[in-house]
């Protein structure tokens, strides 16, 4: 269990004994929201039963129904949808969030350039210091692009202002001009920072859990970012274990069953409050003491009162009807939302002067046993509740979306019914039904039938007193209806059976091209789902991380006028297709008239991403590319010189001139030039002599 910690000072509260009113307020809000979502819980429980293959109490079997088989097609569909979503989101093997500079960055130059081979007077100007000597910001003579990058990239406009007369905005138009884009550099740093933070918090794992509940229940919840003190292993030189504790942003999946939003809200933007229900053990509750602003005495009091967790009505089904009435756990409610300032003051909250003119505050409050464990003002600026909720299928009239299991609830019932009928009919038609004339049988004997059974007859014609009847087998018709219901389920869910391994595809669909077309069409059904993830989860999560880093100043050079890009839908295009199109673009750029319009570094990075490769590790930046180009140029010039020497009959590896080296191809003389001895020489002409080599004949 993880929790957010504020870095801001002055927001601390010491919970007091007189805070029962606030604790009761949170408890009452929880009761109201819980009762209002009863219908939603019934839908989710029905979806879970379909997934697990369990019949609910509303299903009544007749005495003639012997089979109670449950065909778990819902589970197959949910896992197929979950697999498609995760494949799309993580096609690039990275968390699908990116940071880019705004089209017109504010507070920073979009691009600046200088020419390291500029006239001397410009270099003299560049060598002049600004600020004060020794501040590390002097521009040395012959400064390079890397020098400018180290001094200015990532800094805002006020950092560039002292040298605006030396740095020219825009892109350099000379062949030797070096151009840097401070906004783009800041975007790269911010993106790398956020992706590192997400990887450190195992965000990909939590996003996958969220995607699963989306597919099954219709809504997935992700919490974050919130600050968490994380312990890193470290050993001193003497071998003593001295862990390093750092405050890092964290994300985690929150089960939909423990998430209680404002019942009047249709989305997170409309929520006045959110309550998360925690189920904590003794050790987990005691561990809260290590987190900032938790009251140790209040936690000890709660532990002394004993556990108070009571199972909800739906938890029995979720736990497979486990008959355990004693739950050794604590129920802790975490409240995020608006609170009347007077109530907060009465609860003991020390309110800073900056909030004197407001009537309500947004707070974070933890309650257990009607006791406040923690109460702080929401530390985030701008104020936000650190939760993201994404629907599988958007329901515009409810906070919670519609899941795949609900969409195929009726067809799942039909498939179960037809399959039970087919099984019962197969059993009935596979056995004889006996008819016995008891008037001709000896009374009192056992009429059960088994191999070797002997019946005693006292009258009537042979074979007339006992004979069997065979019922027709109509299970084939039942299976046809089953397949029809399955086809309807394909249409209802948008997940066709062939997308998750079901055979039976006919015609062109049996070819490789046909299968590719069918799979492409099947993936379109996931497009709206991934778009919902982009809009309702990835975009707000990325913006929250951006605001988090801007507020708490983790890396000043990563700050700038930037925007968040959710990249879930980017992967809807198959990587193979993206690679082919990028390669085509590279071919087009070979045209000299078009090459100047193609951003080759961007194309190369996108090509690497489409191949599931790490672009940062494989693609050089501008400085590295410049150095590599110079190395290649120098190597090329060296090879050219070697070829010229070889053409003159000189071996650079044989300074003696003995001719023992490699034989070069050289250049053939042209007819009528000195040294030509071919058959095309005019008859009667004197032989051409080789050129004068220092007077030697």
Walk me through the structure:
By secondary structure, the chain is of the alpha+beta class. Among the domains are: 17-95 and 191-407, no CATH class; 111-180, no CATH class. Helix content is 39%, strand content 14%. It contains 21 helices and 15 strands. It has helices at 20-36, 38-52, 73-89, 120-127, 145-152, 157-160, 182-200, 203-217, 282-287, 296-305, 315-318, 341-346, 404-407, 409-429, 475-493, 512-552, 575-589, 592-595, 600-610, 615-618, 622-647, and strands spanning 97-101, 112-114, 168-169, 178-180, 219-232, 244-254, 259-261, 273-280, 330-340, 360-368, 371-377, 387-391, 432-436, 466-470, 562-566. The radius of gyration is 39 Å and the shape is flat.
Strand order of the largest sheet: 7-8-9-10-11
Q: What is the count of DSSP helices, taking H or I runs of 4+ residues?
A: 21
Mean pLDDT, as a whole number?
76
**Distance from first to last alpha carbon:** 96 Å
Helix content: 25-40%
Structural class: alpha+beta
The count of β-strands is: 15
Radius of gyration: 39 Å
Largest sheet: 5 strands, antiparallel
Approximately how much beta-strand content do the residues carry? Answer: 5-15%
Question: Unreliable runs, pLDDT <50, ≥5 residues?
Answer: 1-17, 119-133, 152-157, 505-517, 655-671, 675-697
Shape: flat
List keywords for this structure.
three-stranded antiparallel beta sheet, five-stranded antiparallel beta sheet, 21 helices, disordered C terminus, alpha+beta, 697 residues, disordered N terminus
